[in-house]
Structures are given as structure tokens and as C-alpha cells.
């Protein structure tokens, strides 16, 4: 009965040593660096594309921001120019009044 038990322990011990050896090899630093290199090689093109996309979106956003700021400035200038429009309106009313007065005076001299 001892012999099958010894064989089992021997096989188990051999299997454990083999498993430990595989584990050590799989986690050996050069293998880890190789795996890291493979990961970078696979990931880098996608990351580069994302970076290019983000730069393009940033440029588009900057253009849109400039357009909005320019439009806001134009609206503010229009609001500020209301004083001048009211002044021109008053001058036009005054000119129409003077014209009407001159027409009335001209008709009175005839």
C-alpha cells in the first residue's frame, strides 16, 4: 500500500515542481517586458489615433469658441450703438420737420 502512495507523492511532487517552474518562467522579468512590449505595440496605433482625434476636436472647438466670442462682441457693439441710432433718429425727425417747415413756407410765398 505504501508503494502507490509513494508513486502518488512522487507524481504530485514532480507535478508541483513542474508547475512551479512554469510559474517562474511565466513571471520572469524578461517575459513580463516582452508582454509589456506586445501590449504597447498593439495599443499604440489606437492611442495615436485617439490623440490625433482629440487634437482635431480641440482645433474645431477653438474655432467655434472664437466664432462665438466674435458674435458676442458684435451683439454687444450693436447694443452699445443704440445711443447713436437714437441720435440719428432724432436728427432725421428734426430734418423732416425742417423740410416740412420749408415746404410750408415755400407754399406760403407762392
> What is the count of β-strands?
0
As a percent range, the share of strand residues is under 5%
Could you report the average pLDDT, rounded to the nearest whole number?
85
What count of structural domains? 1
Total number of helices: 3
Helix content: over 70%
Low-pLDDT stretches are none
What is the ordering of alpha helices and beta strands? HHH
Oligomer: single chain
End-to-end separation in angstroms reads 149 Å
Shape: rod-shaped
Radius of gyration from CA coordinates = 45 Å
Biggest β-sheet description: none
InterPro entries: BORCS8 (IPR019320)
Main location: membrane
Protein name: BLOC-1-related complex subunit 8 isoform X3
Keywords: Lysosome, Membrane
Write the layout of secondary structure elements.
Layout (H helix, E strand, L loop, with lengths): L1 H25 L2 H52 L1 H28 L1
Descriptive notes:
This protein has 110 residues and is mostly helical. It has one domain. The chain has helices spanning 2-26, 29-80, 82-109. The mean pLDDT is 85.
Descriptors for this entry?
110 residues, mainly alpha, 0% strand, lysosome, membrane, BLOC-1-related complex subunit 8 isoform X3, BORCS8
In short:
Pfam families: BORCS8. By secondary structure, the chain is mainly alpha-helical.
